[in-house]
Design goal:
With about 400 residues, this protein is of the alpha/beta class. The chain has two domains: about 100 residues, no CATH class; about 280 residues, 3-Layer(aba) Sandwich (Rossmann fold), CATH 3.40.50.1820. Helices cover about 45% and strands about 15% of the residues. It contains 17 helices and nine strands. It has a nine-stranded mixed beta sheet with strand order 1-2-4-3-5-6-7-8-9, with helices on both faces. α13 links the parallel β7 and β8. The longest helix is centred in the middle third of the chain and has 21 residues. The chain is globular, with a radius of gyration of 21 Å. The protein starts with a helix and ends with a strand.
């Protein structure tokens, strides 16, 4: 029993070692950094999730929240998010004034219901009143609909109208629901797609997601492939997606230990099984059934093709880039003649920060991908010119000066 209680801790660490990021004890970490991360951890510790019955699952969710919050130095400051606050964040933290959304009189707040009866809050951003092409943009764990809106910036420039929404237990949603890292959240994405089709009758739709949102898009594509096709979903863009909860857990633990050491391998496997078992027993959620690689293999003979674009960073410490590689490889069963999948893996960035570190190149890669599918060369050229996204502009920006080999592959 004592051994189980100390599996997250080093022998010399105190009883709070499993709450505080172990990197705080490493040489070179400043006192201000320790204080910043301690504040985040204390806030989590003092506001436990009453809707999660399992402490094992709750601890994992809380640790994920801490890991997601640390890169966002303005997390507390921007807790009650709005367009003006997000604009300041894009300037002060992202250092990307081109990410600012200046037109705000075209935002329509709305509510809709998920298929299992949860009230969800959303936004409609009308980029072009004469356009009926739409993007559904989904946010990451711990974020909200405003983040999703800002991450859809490439499509705002291309004249798409944007629908973004808060996942259950995120943003302005008040009903207490368990966070399932994709299973129940997929219902939210499905409900948003159905609402959009029923109420706006789009000419065609694109989906965009980051982290958790990206997972739900992949999961929805497999589970409700007919809905993708009947809704005329033309493409999907997925940043920092994971293919399984197991992958998230393993990657989280691998940050602090040498995964190849036998004792840690056994501890990690045990931890994975414990979290999965707790979720199934206490929350009635079978996380193991949501491995996207397994699902793809099971349904590869019945799935109809929709192009996917994956992007991540090789040094992402939260969501491993290997998940994107593995997903795009496992999608190779689609006919080569129709396969237009694309993957871009940067050397340096972190989850949700690719637009911060690689704004121009990321914008260009997404816009080029969209044009391969939609084929509006004139509009694409106009946006590339107006946003200064030519190859020369990207080189002059200096954003890619530290990149060694950015992996880009178009099927």
């Amino acid at each position: 029993m004592a051994k189980q209680k100390t599996e997250y801790k080093d022998k010399k660490s105190n009883k709070k070692a499993d709450k505080l990021d172990q990197s705080l004890n490493e040489p070179g970490v400043t006192d201000s950094k320790r204080k910043e991360e301690k504040i985040i951890d204390d806030r989590i510790d003092n506001s436990k999730n009453p809707f999660i019955k399992s402490k094992t699952l709750e601890d994992f969710i809380n640790k994920l929240y801490v890991d997601n919050s640390i890169p966002m130095r303005y997390n507390d400051k921007f807790k009650n998010t709005s367009i003006p606050k997000m604009n300041r964040l894009m300037i002060d933290f992202f250092k990307q004034p081109d990410m600012v959304i200046s037109q705000t009189n075209n935002i329509i707040p709305f509510r809709f219901y998920s298929n299992d009866g949860i009230t969800l809050n959303g936004l409609q951003y009308i980029s072009n009143k004469t356009s009926n092409k739409w993007i559904i943009s989904t946010h990451d764990f711990g974020q909200n609909k405003y983040w999703a809106l800002f991450f859809a910036k490439p499509f705002i420039e291309l004249g798409y109208n944007i629908l973004s929404f808060d996942f259950r237990n995120h943003g302005d949603n008040k009903e207490e629901q368990p966070i399932t890292l994709g299973q129940l959240e997929t219902i939210d994405t499905k409900s948003a797609l159905e609402w959009l089709v029923e109420n706006k009758h789009p000419d065609y739709i694109g989906l965009m997601g980051v982290g958790l949102g990206a997972y739900t898009i992949n999961n929805l594509f497999i589970e409700n492939n007919d809905l993708f096709i009947s809704s005329n979903v033309k493409f999907s863009v997925c940043e920092s997606t994971y293919h399984s909860v197991e992958s998230l857990i393993i990657n989280q633990r691998r940050k602090w230990r040498y995964i190849y050491e036998t004792p840690f391998v056994k501890q990690t496997a045990k931890r994975v099984h414990k979290i999965m078992k707790a979720a199934k027993k206490e929350e009635h959620v079978d996380l193991k059934e949501n491995n996207l690689l397994v699902k793809l293999n099971q349904k590869k003979n019945t799935l109809k093709y929709v192009p996917f674009f994956y992007t991540n960073s090789s040094i992402n410490t939260l969501v491993p880039a290997k998940d994107s590689y593995e997903l795009i490889i496992d999608r190779e069963f689609f006919k080569q003649s129709e396969n237009k999948d694309k993957i871009v893996i940067y050397d340096f960035s972190q989850s949700r920060l690719i637009f911060k570190d690689h704004f121009k190149k990321n914008m260009r890669e997404i816009i080029d991908f969209e044009n391969v599918i939609i084929g509006d060369d004139k509009l694409t050229e106009e946006v590339i010119k107006s946003m200064q996204l030519t190859d020369e502009d990207i080189a002059k920006s200096g954003e890619e000066s530290n990149e060694l080999i950015t992996f880009v592959h178009q099927s």
